[in-house]
Amino acid sequence: MASTRRATTPDKISAPHGFVWGVSTSSYQIEGAAREDGRGPSIWDTYCAQTGRIANGDTGDIACDHYHRYAEDIGLMRELGVNAYRFSVAWPRVLPQGRGAVNESGLAFYDRLIDALIAAGIEPWLCLYHWDLPQALDDLGGWTNRDCAGWFADYTALIARRFGDRVKRFATFNEPSVFSLLGYGIGGQAPGVTDRSLLLRTIHHVNLAHGAAIDVLRAGVPEASLGIIHNHQPCLPASDAPQDAAAARKFDAYWNGAFPDPQLLAHYPPLLADFIAPYEQGGDLARICRPIDWFGLNHYSPLYVQAFDGNPLGAGFGPVPPEVPRTSIGWPVQPDAFRDTLLAIHERYRLPIYVLENGTANVDEVGENGKVIDQPRVDFLKAYTTAMFDAMRAGADVRGYFVWSLLDNFEWGSGYSQRFGITYVDYPTQRRIPKASFHWYAQLIKATALSAYSGGG
Ligand code: FCB
């Protein structure tokens, strides 16, 4: 088992010229304005309205009110010194029914956001899908319906046409394995379905949607740099029992392999292939495996897996060994696993890697002096960026790093009870307070820019 590494200070580490420093967010988690200016409902609006789904009955209705406060939030990014901002477009904001009539006010919001980013010298990285499927499409089966790949391609064409003159970095999906497995297989996320056959269909249809969107983007924005964002977590057995070892292998196939393998290697993991086969049509793998330019990696921790009869996978999240430190949300802190993951992804897929999410939840409080001293987050980020630099020295081709997240925000099933931001959000007033980790990150970016070496990225 990996141990926690000692963190070095920012001045002991350096990045190659051109290394991208950024922050990430997503539409449903920060925008709010859920019923404003013609936005249609998403599956997350529906899911949040169901009793017992979200901690404290929280919803994304207001979230960080970023829809109205985006200019102030870009001001924070400038203060940080990031060169890039990864956000997602809310599909139901621009196509309230998911297809058909376009909502001009929704597109205009992203125009304002993109223009303000560019004016601030911050490159927009646009993710097409961070889990907020239009409810109207879910009513037609959503991802369990093969037609959803075509609806996604049409939505992608709209985005390419409208923003392709200014946006040159696109990701198709954020963490397809997370929203597919939790949304359609083992529970815990919208739309809250647990059904083996619907899960298998969803996996295949999301893969088809990815391939179709890549084709649309290549044709519409030929000079763009394209990728997809995967959450890769080493799956470790929660005990020495052989059934937990088998469960960990199976979980790894679904969680880490079901999307990147067909997309980049043109095959499903062997443990999965026979189950997906009934939903495949001739030529599908060629439709899915389209050349992309980079691998977006989200990484927080390894996973401890145990055999479990209560879901269609026969495997589920197990306990973290007591000796492993954990964050406030319970996720293990193991930066060595991050270094190993970067090297493993580099070896397996041979693409430049952008770390598009890394960060930690923490119990943050505003002190009497008005400051938020989130030392555990500073320690976490130091240890994880150090692990990344170790991986780069060992040969991993890492071109950028984005912290999750710029702001505290709506953390899915945990609602607002878990804070992941480097900026504190006082939800009743929407006041933003940069935390100690914000200042630490700004210093890291400055220090690495000063000591940047040539070669690499
Ligand atoms: C990732 C999600 C992101 C956020 C972080 C903490 O899995 O992509 O939206 O919730 O976890």
Structure description:
The chain has a single domain (2-454), classed as TIM Barrel. Helices cover 40% and strands 14% of the residues. It has helices spanning 27-30, 43-49, 66-80, 91-94, 104-119, 135-138, 147-163, 176-185, 196-220, 242-257, 260-265, 270-276, 284-288, 335-349, 375-393, 436-450; strands spanning 20-24, 84-88, 123-129, 169-174, 225-231, 235-237, 294-298, 303-307, 315-317, 353-357, 398-404, 423-426, 431-434. The strands form three sheets. It has an eight-stranded parallel β-barrel with strand order 1-2-3-4-5-7-10-11, surrounded by five helices. A three-stranded mixed β-sheet has the order 6-8-9, with helices on one face. Strands 12-13 form a two-stranded antiparallel sheet. A hairpin with a 7-residue loop joins β8 (303-307) and β9 (315-317). The model is unreliable at 1-11 (pLDDT under 50). The chain binds beta-D-fucopyranose. Beta-D-fucopyranose binds next to loops.
